[in-house]
Amino acid sequence: MEKKAIDWSNLGFSYMETEKRFVSNYKDGKWDAGLLTDNANVVINECAGVLQYAQTCFEGLKAYTTEDGHIVMFRPDLNAKRMADSAKRLMMPAFPEERFLEAVHKVVEANKAFVPPYGSGATLYIRPYMFGSNPVIGVKPADEYQFRVFTTPVGPYFKGGAKPITIRVCDYDRAAPHGTGHVKAGLNYAMSLYAIMEAHSQGYDENMYLDAATRTKVEETGGANFIFITKDQKLVTPKSSTILPSITRRSLMYVAEHYLGMEVEEREVYFDEVKEFAECGLCGTAAVISPVGKVVDHGKEICFPSGMDEMGPVTKKLYDTLTGIQMGHIEAPEGWIHRV
Ligand code: PLP
Ligand code: COI
Fold it and tell me: What is the pLDDT of residue 2?
């Protein structure tokens, strides 16, 4: 199979239309068989539930080319499960988890020519999503839904790749106690746009959100969870019921403990403690692990000892082990790697 003529090493995190996408519709209480289509456009009624009341959720995962030339996906079963959880919270019918797995396999298979080659630094991002598709004008769940999966080749989420970024403590909240912060609802991202544009205009790469109830604890950013490394090399990561349960983070906690012999603590992290950590990173499918060099709290700077030039040494070990597992040169725990 011929790869597309794409400058893989210079891709950013942006959309490029690929050849095929999967579509299935839910009507009269059931999902249809679904199919692969060439048509990248969605046509829905002007009053569709998603357009009026944002009834939509999504997922994000990646396909990788391994060193020996296979195409694999990383833990897609956890995305299937999380999407079912998101759907439930938003009063949408879950797309069956087995069928989710089949659909992502099919779409990656059909777009093999767009899976970036091993060593290029790029990957194929997979975006499953669903939305209320029939007219809804009173505030209630739709009766009809569409589930889709498309793919797009991507490079690093932050320009500069592994260069440490600078973030600010954000005055806006991301998620309310007992709200929707723990699911991947489109609405969580719509409401973060004002805050991210404001951060960018002030020269910051991202926002650090604090807990909305007390504004004393670290939550996450708009699109990734936090990991911190203590001076004695423990991995510390915030425990909260209002952050997205990151699959990358769950994997890193396992890797830290079982591959690197580190102690791991998932616990509440007070903002006041942040200045004591040796290293800080953002983790997620898109972010992989993006090192944070500096956190600015209303003009007060916290500079991590790892500096602004490169990833801290422990973060680097975590990064190398995780990406080694994803790219197939480090043996993966049972069930983590799904070959396409
Ligand atoms: N937190 C938020 C708000 C996200 O959007 C994402 C991305 O999916 C993550 C964390 C990281 O989750 P994962 O590692 O499953 O991609
Ligand atoms: C992902 O990491 O897959 C996400 O969905 C985060 C998004 C901000 C791109």
Answer: 85
Ligand 2 neighbour 223 (Cβ under 6 A) = yes
ipTM of predicted assembly, 2 dp: 0.98
Q: Which ligand is nearest to the CA of 251?
A: 1
Q: Which amino acid is at 90?
A: L
Q: Which pLDDT belongs to residue 22?
A: 98
Q: Whose CA is nearest to atom 8 of ligand 2?
A: 223
Mean pLDDT of the chain: 97
Whether the pLDDT of residue 1 is over 80: the answer is: no
Helices 76-89 and 247-258 pack at an angle, to 10 degrees, of 140
For ligand 1, say whether the CB of 285 is within 6 Å of any of its atoms.
yes
SS3 call for 110: helix
Give the distance (Å) from ligand 2 centre to CA of residue 118.
22
Work out the percent of the chain whose per-residue pLDDT is above 90.
97
Say what the pLDDT of residue 336 is. 98
- Cβ of 285 closer than 6 Å to ligand 2, yes or no, is yes
> Any idea what DSSP says for residue 182?
T
Cβ atoms of 26 and 146 closer than 8 Å: yes
Helices and strands (DSSP H and E) totals, the chain: 7, 17
What residue ranges define each of the domains in the chain, with the CATH number in brackets? 21-154 (3.30.470.10), 165-325 (3.20.10.10)
Q: Which contacts (CB < 8 Å, 24+ apart) does range 218-222 have? A: 218/269, 218/270, 218/271, 218/274, 219/174, 219/175, 219/181, 219/243, 220/174, 220/244, 220/246, 221/167, 221/282, 222/174, 222/189, 222/192, 222/195, 222/196
Structure pTM?
Answer: 0.97
Tell me the C-alpha distance between 308 and 79, whole Å.
Answer: 33
Q: What is the pLDDT of residue 183?
A: 98
- What pLDDT digit, counting tens, does each position of 155-193 carry? 999 987 789 999 999 999 999 999 999 999 999 999 999
> Among all residues, which ones are annotated catalytic?
184
φ, ψ (nearest 5 deg) of residue 109: -55, -45
